[in-house]
Amino acid sequence: IGALSEDGRARVRNEHVGFVFQNFQLIPTLTALENVMVPVELRGEGGPDLQAEARALLARGGLGERCGHYPVQLSGGEQQRVALARAFVMQPRLLFADEPTGNLDAATGAEIIELLFQLNAEQGTTLVLVTHDETLARRCQRQIRLAGGRVQP
User: What is the mean pLDDT of the chain?
Assistant: First the structure.
């Protein structure tokens, strides 16, 4: 990947990588459905099949009736469900999740994690999860611990 141009790296990320951030990173001027469709639009794809997939992913997160709502109209848990749908809509081979429950209460965080692991299993995505939550880390197949910027044995 290092030999690729910036455009080439962006293309690889768009075609193979999904991201879920602690602070959701939704575009405030777009509805929930439009936020989910951003990677679809960036790839230059679209159409009714992918929009139906986006709607289905939102419905899986309990947001079927909230597709037209803007991020400010959604709770933190709802925003994170939109972010999960956006990350999975293009069926990435690799998904990075950075503290996906960090801004959520415990009950909502547990729901988000269940949905994350369900979608991950269904799509066969490689999940790289960054967390300080030991309980969440134990759910992963492999754990790599860092301390002081170094991998711990």
Answer: 91
